[in-house]
Amino acid sequence: MANFTVKRTTIRRRLILVFVLTVLATLLLISRLAWIQIVQADQLYEQAWEQWNHIVPVQTARGSIYDRHGNLLAGSVTADTIAAIPNQIDNPEEVAGALAPILEMDEARIRELITMDYSSIYIKRRVPADMSKMIREMNIPGIVFFPEEKRNYPGEQLASQLLGFVGMDQGLAGLEHYYEEYLRGAESNLLYPADERGRQLPHHFNRFAPLPENYDLRLTIDESIQHIVEKELAVIMEQAAPRQAVAVAVDPHSGAVLAAASKPDYNPGEYDSFDPDSWSLPVFSSSFEPGSTFKMVTLAALVEEGLFEPDQEFHCPGYATVGGRRINCWTSSRGGHGDISYYEAVGGSCNPAFIELGETLGKEKLFHYIEGFGFGRQTGVDYPGESSGVIFELDQIGPQELATSSFGQGISVTPIQQAMSTAAMVNGGYLFKPYLVEEIVDQDGETYIKREPEMIRQVVSEETSAQLIDLMESVILEGTGTTAALENYRVAGKTGTAEKIDDEGTYRSDEFIYSLAGFAPVEDPKIVLYVAVDGVTRGPRFGSQTSAPLFRRIMEDTLNYLQVSPSKQPPEEVDPEE
């Protein structure tokens, strides 16, 4: 009986011990589960996510660029990027040999890439569709395809120098570069599920991480006017075979650039196949001696200062001697203009007359107006690499520098400076800052930044502006610009022929830059246009046969496109005696 009691006590103790141990074990398991599921949950989730999901960095789509009417000038299309998952490739030598001729890459380089110790790696990004198709059909294990956005320019070479181009992930020229902050696509992640060996699971969709916001640009450029300009520049390049031809059209009442182009240009989608010299837009980035178009600055200063006497007589022998240097008029071969009035000197673009007019002004007053019209400094247009041109400092100006500056020689200006100064002369005297982007909008089409016209200063009075308009119209009616006249519209402007300087700093007698700065219609200027043809090598070597007809064709087509009503009264010659 005693033994039986002992056994029962022993069994009870053992049961209690087992119970206690079970309870402790259960508590330990519960604690461990709590530790894993609560304390370590985030860490373990992250580790599991990384094990089952693989990341490939990709570039999201850039913002688009539109003209003033919403026509697409630059956008993005989807293209395949080819990548490798190295641990899925069993025969790197064979794979590299198969891919190299299709991808146009070095076989050793592909082999190096696909054997690297990475979960995934790019082989070639944004490949053409036919190239991607050929590789897809090979169905190579470990070679995968990811969609990325590739820049697309629907107009190909249209506005190419203005728009610029994009490298692999960023804008490298033109507006693409200048507005990179707003246009750029951001680095994002493309995710795909994989097994424990890193092999992509079939029938699963790739997905992007949330995308950051970018913006679209709406330009001041009118695609139709841009097309007109580029079409006519191509014609003059074919006819005259110049080194270069440029044109820029602006709204004289706001500074909005309606078109800007030069030839030769390039295709931004294939920029690396073209001469890098063609990538920038000379309208903003290049400067050269303006020639006689610059005489309007001298004239504006004279009129504003009350020093211009149109009826005053002047004798042009075909040259002027300044500081011992002979400076010719373009009429020197025929003995000069002879006896003319200063009014006639404007229409006839007489250098000796403007030399005397410059002396009448003096260097302080002349250069006050030169700077007032914006020459010698950047206009501030929103385009990279703008040139400021070059003008003399006051302490550098002697009699010869004053003489040559008065008719546009010895200094350099940019086409956009010429266009904006002409606009100031005809809009009441107000100099505006030129601009290319009208607004920046978000992906919902809401305006983020709206650009308003920016008036810099009033350079001359409205009365002076009105007189300058009459004088410039006389150049087209009866002066050097008659071949720029239009049948249904009153046109005004000033021609220019600038000698070019060779590498030794000597003026060449066989190569010129022919230009014309003008506007229409005279009674209500809608558009200011500047054109220049540099280094004609074929056909007539006169501005009247190159720059003036180029100006006329662009202006006529543009006014018709804008549906500007014909001038109410036909052009009439202005009588200086009235």
How is this fold's topology laid out?
Blueprint: H1 2-39, H2 41-52, E1 53-59, E2 65-66, E3 72-84, H3 92-103, H4 107-114, E4 121-127, H5 129-138, E5 143-152, H6 160-163, H7 174-178, H8 180-183, E6 187-193, E7 207-208, E8 216-219, H9 223-240, E9 244-250, E10 257-263, H10 282-285, H11 295-304, E11 313-316, E12 319-322, E13 325-328, E14 338-341, H12 342-348, H13 351-361, H14 363-372, H15 399-406, H16 415-426, E15 430-432, E16 437-441, E17 447-450, E18 455-458, H17 462-478, E19 492-501, E20 507-520, E21 527-534, H18 547-561
Report what the structure shows:
This protein is of the alpha+beta class and 578 residues long. The chain folds into three domains: 2-39; 55-215, Penicillin-binding protein 2a (Domain 2) (Alpha-Beta Complex), CATH 3.90.1310.10; 223-266 and 280-561, DD-peptidase/beta-lactamase superfamily (Beta-lactamase), CATH 3.40.710. The chain is 35% helix and 22% strand. It is built from 18 helices and 21 strands. Strand 20 and strand 21 (527-534) form a beta hairpin. Helix 3 packs across helix 4 (107-114), helix 12 (342-348) crosses helix 17 (462-478) and helix 13 (351-361) packs across helix 15 (399-406). It is elongated and about 150 Å long. 43% of the residues are buried. Mean pLDDT is 85; it is low at 573-578.
Give keywords.
578 residues; alpha+beta; Penicillin-binding protein 2a (Domain 2); Beta-lactamase; 3 domains; five-stranded antiparallel β-sheet; 18 helices; 35% helix; 22% strand; elongated; disordered C terminus
Summarize the structure.
The chain has 578 residues and is of the alpha+beta class. It contains 18 helices and 21 strands.
